[in-house]
Amino acid sequence: MSITGIKGMNDILPGDVETWQHLEEQARRVFGAFGYREIRVPVVEKTELFCRSIGETTDIVEKEMYTFSDKGGTSMTLRPEGTAPVIRAFIQHKMYAQDPVSKLYYIGPMFRHERPQKGRYRQFHQIGAEVIGVDDPKIDAQVLAMLSHYFITTNIPDVTLQINSLGCPECRPGYRESLITFLEQYLSALCADCQRRYTSNPLRVLDCKVPGCKEATQAAPAMLDSLCMGCDTHFNQVKEHLNTLLIDYTVNPRMVRGLDYYTKTTFEMVTGSLGAQNAVAAGGRYDGLISDLGGPELSGIGFAIGLERLALMLGEQSIDPPRPELFIATLGEAATKAGFAMLTHLQRQGILVEMEYTGKSLKAQLRRADKLKTRRVLILGEDELARGVAQLRHMDESLQEEVNLEGLEVRLLSKIHGENEILGA
Ligand code: ATP
Ligand code: MG
């Protein structure tokens, strides 16, 4: 029996991978222009990093992590998200000592043991960005400006930005208590999960997708009404800056995030086109996380974009492979050797050239050239090689001409480069 991949972990094949490359290239371009630099961290970390940062009573830590002991007995976890590892690296390498402000981004796979369905997988990919060291609301607005701009440049249709504030250690505990008091009245209407977590993590009840819980919590108090002065001012300024930058948003007072480290501004990019999996990006401010993980008292803010969901939104049309500029067909051993040398030489010049490697008939070679939709075919025969000529067939024009081999590579190169320039490639 042949071996298959693991459920919920997808292969990304040629034809689809071009969409991914587009999403990644745009991120590098857009984030680069906003002054972010890439950071690459391992896919595995010590388990305690995620328990301490994401929070023991969150869905991720309670039930979604891939955790195992390595041969030395250390508990390790495949990263379920990128912020904690980036902050761990930031602290470990004392990056704050080089520059008081760090703007970082990452691209890579994340792992969560969830029930696989459309838009929800066990290995999925995120592009994330973090700004460490600035607590000014201008940065919150700029992060959102960058995120919105990314969606525009990648042609992702109808996404809306929702924002909220989750307060800070000064105002959240009071709100938490009033929420618990509210939830107590409706306890019997809540799902089993919510009945369990209403005291350990009551904010999560507001985020529950079970209809009964949604209904029961409709009149729940909102964090926004309990913000302390500092958080209230911060939130108002974020909104003002968003208005100045002409960024559309709606305030969603019920939005909470599934990770404990968030403070003040939180946000999601949501779409109407993906059913239940409607969040395509999410993030927020995390002013306590860096010191909680043993670093200096610095504030942070960031987001993560889910690439699978974006790829789904960009549609399922598969992209054709690139057309070769030239296919070299040969007859006889000497011509094959000469053709192979020419092939390699042109490839080194960055030109897409193909040939058949296994000594097939000319007819079979031409069939392969057709299949690859090559622009030209060079037919190189033994006699012609001796005469220093070859046949060059221009497939789009159905034209064939005899060409001199001397100087042919140079002529081809300048022709191909010239055409590509005209086509803007
Ligand atoms: P959801 O509410 O959909 O479970 P989340 O709050 O758990 O999302 P975050 O941890 O904030 O998600 O991650 C940011 C983004 O990563 C999400 O908005 C989503 O686009 C994507 N994402 C999260 N989990 C998955 C998954 N299992 N499969 C695919 N994409 C995911
Ligand atoms: Mg989730």
Taken from the alpha-carbon principal axes, the silhouette is: elongated
Strand tally:
16
Which sequence of strands runs across the widest sheet?
A: 1-5-6-11-10-9-7-8
Instruction: Give the C-level CATH assignment of the largest domain.
Output: Alpha Beta
Secondary-structure class: alpha+beta
In CATH terms, the superfamily of the largest domain is Bira Bifunctional Protein, Domain 2
Describe it.
The chain folds into two domains: 246 residues, BirA Bifunctional Protein, domain 2; 98 residues, Anticodon-binding domain (Rossmann fold). The model has no long low-confidence stretch (mean pLDDT 94). It has 425 residues and is of the alpha+beta class. The two termini are 46 Å apart. The strands form three sheets. An eight-stranded mixed β-sheet has the order 1-5-6-11-10-9-7-8. The structure holds adenosine-5'-triphosphate and magnesium ion. The site of magnesium ion has 2 residues, from loops.
Write the layout of secondary structure elements.
Elements: H1 17-33, E1 37-38, E2 44-46, H2 47-54, H3 59-64, E3 67-69, E4 75-78, H4 83-92, H5 95-98, E5 102-111, E6 123-132, H6 137-153, E7 159-165, H7 172-185, H8 192-200, H9 203-206, H10 211-216, H11 229-244, E8 250-251, E9 263-271, E10 279-285, H12 289-292, E11 300-306, H13 307-313, E12 326-330, H14 333-348, E13 353-355, H15 362-371, E14 376-380, H16 382-387, E15 389-394, E16 399-404, H17 408-422
Parallel strand pairs: 1-5, 7-8, 12-13, 12-14
Antiparallel strand pairs: 2-4, 3-4, 5-6, 6-11, 7-9, 9-10, 10-11, 14-15, 15-16
Helix pairs in contact: 1-6, 6-11
Residues 59, 258 line the site of magnesium ion.
